[in-house]
Design a protein that fits this description.
Largest sheet: none
Radius of gyration: 18 Å
Structural class: mainly alpha
Number of domains: 1
Order of helices and strands: HHHHHH
Length: about 120
């Protein structure tokens, strides 16, 4: 079936997850840079505040899409392989937990930005 690899988080030969991971990383780092420039700028640079808001939103959506594609790709790995044990029981699992915490912190900081009154 033509859609089967796509539903498993892959093209015909390669997983989508490694292609999607840089999007939230870049968006979160860029929003941090925008926030730093806003704090150090003389006038507050309001367009950077708006840019940081949208970058965090893009990063959160990108993180969700990357996580879903990673889980779908992980589920296609046969259970008897060492890669499954490596992905579940090693520092990879700790990094995954750290990314979840990071995403929740960005979401907590993103919500008040959308409700601010100028």
């Amino acid at each position: 079936m033509l859609c089967e690899p796509f539903l498993a988080g892959r093209s015909r030969t390669h997983p989508f997850h490694p292609l999607l991971v840089p999007l939230p990383i870049g968006a979160f780092v860029s929003s941090l840079i925008f926030d730093i420039l806003t704090q150090t700028g003389a006038n507050g640079l309001p367009y950077l505040v708006d840019g940081a808001f949208w970058l965090i939103g893009v990063g959160l959506i990108g993180a969700l899409v990357a996580a879903v594609s990673g889980v779908m790709d992980f589920l296609t790995i046969p259970r008897s392989t060492p890669r499954v044990r490596h992905g579940v029981y090693t520092p990879d699992a700790q990094r995954r937990d750290g990314r979840t915490i990071r995403d929740r912190l960005f979401m907590a900081g993103w919500q008040p930005r959308g409700t601010r009154q100028d």
